[in-house]
Each structure stands twice: as C-alpha cells, then as structure tokens.
Amino acid sequence: MRISLVLGSGGARGYAHIGVIEELENAGLEIVSVCGSSMGALVGGLYAAGALEDYKKWVLDLDPLDVASLLDISFEGGGLIKGEKVFRRLEEMMGRRRIEELEVRYTAVATDIAHSKEVWFQEGDLLTAIRASIAIPSVFTPVEYKGMVLVDGGVLNPLPVAPVMSDHTDIIIAVNVYGDVPKPQIEEGKEERGRMERIKEALRSKVGEYLQREYSMLEIAKRSFDVMQNTLVRYRLAGYPPDHLIEISKDVCDTFDFHKAPEVIEVGRIAAKEALGRILGGESA
Hints:
This protein has helices at about 15-25, 40-50, 50-60, 65-70, 85-95, 125-135, 195-240, 260-280, and strands spanning about 1-5, 30-35, 80, 105-110, 115-120, 140, 145, 150, 170-180, 245-250. By secondary structure, it is α/β, with parallel strands linked by helices. It starts with a strand and ends with a helix.
C-alpha cells in the first residue's frame, strides 16, 4: 500500500514521528510522499534523505547537557537561538540535498510573516526548507529567503494535509502530536527522573541570568503557542481531513524536552501499532 504521510509540528513531541514511521514500514506500508511542518518537516526531511536512522541514533543519546551545548545564543534579535550548531550536525548526516532529487516526494511548510502567507517548499535546498519550517517565533531566528521572512510552518498550518491531496497514493495518513488522548505509561529509569532540573542548571551555567529571564518569557510564549497549535490543528483537519489520523498525546512531553527521545519515540510506536488495525482493515479515521 502506497501512502502519503503528513507529520505535524510540536517541538520535541515530534520525536514520536520516528516511531510512527518505523511501525508503518514494519507493517509493509510504502511511504512515497511526506509533508510536514516544523519538527514534522525535520523528521520527514531526514526520512526522505535516507538519514533518519543516523538522526535517531544521535538523539537517543542526547542528555540535558548535550541539549544545552547545542544552544547557540543570538543577541541580534528575531530569536533567542541561531540554530547553526544543530544544522551543522544535520548537514553531516544528510549532506546538501535538493528536494526535487529526493526519492520520496517531500514538502516542508513554513510561514512568511512579511506577507502573511503559507509557503510550501517542494524544490530547492532541503536544509534551507527545514530551517525555515522549524523557526519557532521568538525562539529560533527567522530565515530571510527570496524577499520573505520565514518562520515555523505551525504558525499557520501545524498539520499540512493540503499539499499531499493531489498525490497519487492509496491513502493519506496524518500524525497529530497535539492529540487529546491519554499518554501511555512508560517506565522511566532513575537517570531520567530529575533531568529537567539538570537541564535548567546547564542553562544557568551556559548563559547566566540573561537566559533565565528570557526562559521565563519563553515559557509563556511556548504555552501560548501550544494552545494556538492545538486549535489550528482542529481547524485544518476540518478543511482537509486525511484518510487516517494517528493521535499522539499532547502530554507526552514538553515542547523543548529534546532530551526525551527514547520515551517519545516509543509513544509514537505504540500509537502507530494501535492505528494499524483500522488502517489495514480499511476503516476511515
């Protein structure tokens, strides 16, 4: 069965997309088209470039100190983090690839705040498309591109089904990481407990009181952004419903819990396994 896969935005919750992709492939489904916003664009781009396994190995080993070390602070305005360290690592994994040369059809969705419009990247440099799509306002610096000022695709479309509606595939599967469903219970080891305190301490030592003041502001911005994302997802799904929807609990982790890859990936795997019964059985979402 040939499928179009739509991966939603959601920060670290987007690690769940990795588990979903693995389970879909294990079930024999062929992903021939992938579209995403923000973290969904990142995971989808890595998959389309054949670099998802390398990325998974990397993030599985990230601890709070590793995450803190990747934060290259920008004092130039537009965003707190430049993101250059992360993207140097991503370039090592996938190289400089052009979207139109990928074996899997790929779309990254970003938002042009200069012209208040949604932008679809379906050709051009893959890393540029991903960088634009993940630029969370006030967190990552925006991308200036061809007269546009591009930020996170989730600002206008956190679950972009529309770009794959014209694909010649059997079904469209969308993965929403803002699902109003219970979080599966996954046992955490002693090392996992208390990691948030360790990452806060790492942040304090890295940039001092400046970042702590900004972090409080970011916490407010983050929670506001999550509320807007959840509402936008429901609005977008009403206009462009997929054939099947896989729901990941919005409580699986926080937006910036990038040290929690093992459990979030596992939650994605569990959700995909539960959804495969109705997908393979032909039931609609």
